UniProtKB/TrEMBL annotation:
<dbReference type="Pfam" id="PF16694">
    <property type="entry name" value="Cytochrome_P460"/>
</dbReference>
<feature type="signal peptide">
    <location>
        <begin position="1"/>
        <end position="24"/>
    </location>
</feature>
<dbReference type="InterPro" id="IPR032033">
    <property type="entry name" value="Cytochrome_P460"/>
</dbReference>
<keyword id="KW-0732">Signal</keyword>
<protein>
    <recommendedName>
        <fullName>Cytochrome P460 domain-containing protein</fullName>
    </recommendedName>
</protein>
<dbReference type="InterPro" id="IPR038142">
    <property type="entry name" value="Cytochrome_P460_sp"/>
</dbReference>
<feature type="domain" description="Cytochrome P460">
    <location>
        <begin position="50"/>
        <end position="146"/>
    </location>
</feature>
């Protein structure tokens, strides 16, 4: 299959780069979750002209609400809009054993990270170790900044309107900073 061959090619290239000691950009694991919008839209984060829309599976929301670990196979997708226009997507995906290839100081449990361009292709300019460095501070909440929003997300249709209203409220200052994801990433990029 063409797609399989392409993905295998990417994995091979990443392995080759890693073997050569070159920093592979993006990663070979997290593909764009094309059906993400069929999951649960659990939060909106807005500040200034930045707006982020967060989606994950119903199973992940239910687990969060029961106080259980986010299940194996979960994908979280964030749409990132600037000035009302889609700027990019970022995603996290959790699979049993995925963390094992990372050094303990980098590892975020079994989560892997990926950034996508608006056309949904992987952004190969993005160093995902940067994502991991910041999210690692959230180890106490399964490496997530918005676990509390998942816990608060109503799953019934009746609750959806309320959720949309609540979602407009700004996030309580996260442990990192009272900034949107996009803002903290921009400032982190400038600092380097
Ligand atoms: C400097 C800190 C920082 C970096 C770097 C960072 N993030 Fe985040 N991320 C956050 C914060 C803070 C949030 C919560 C949303 C908000 O406040 O905007 C978040 C939320 C997320 C979420 C929603 C799930 C959650 O944790 O709440 C995903 C998915 C995500 N980030 C993926 C990524 C990816 C992929 C990268 C790298 C391309 C990345 N992040 C880099 C700080 C960061």
């Amino acid at each position: 299959m063409r797609r399989g061959g392409y993905l295998a090619g990417l994995a091979w290239t990443a392995a080759l780069l890693a073997g050569a000691g070159v920093q592979a950009q993006g990663n070979d694991r997290v593909a764009f979750p094309a059906a993400y919008a069929e999951g649960v839209h659990y939060a909106t984060v807005t500040r200034g002209d930045i707006r982020e829309e967060l989606y994950t599976s119903r199973a992940a929301i239910e687990a969060a609400q029961r106080g259980e670990p986010i299940p194996d196979g979960t994908v979280i997708l964030m749409e990132d809009y600037r000035g009302g226009r889609l700027h990019r997507y970022v995603a996290m995906e959790k699979r049993a054993g995925w963390g094992e290839r990372h050094a303990p100081e980098v590892r975020n449990g079994d989560w892997e990270f990926q950034a996508f361009l608006p056309d949904r292709s992987v952004n190969r300019e993005e160093r995902v170790t940067r994502c991991m460095g910041c999210h690692k501070a959230q180890a106490g909440t399964d490496f997530l900044f918005t676990l509390d929003r998942m816990k608060a997300a109503p799953l019934s249709e009746a609750g959806a309107g309320m959720q949309r209203a609540l979602a407009q409220a700004p996030l309580a200052p996260a442990s990192a900073a009272d900034l949107t994801h996009a803002q903290v990433m921009l400032s982190a990029a400038r600092g380097r």
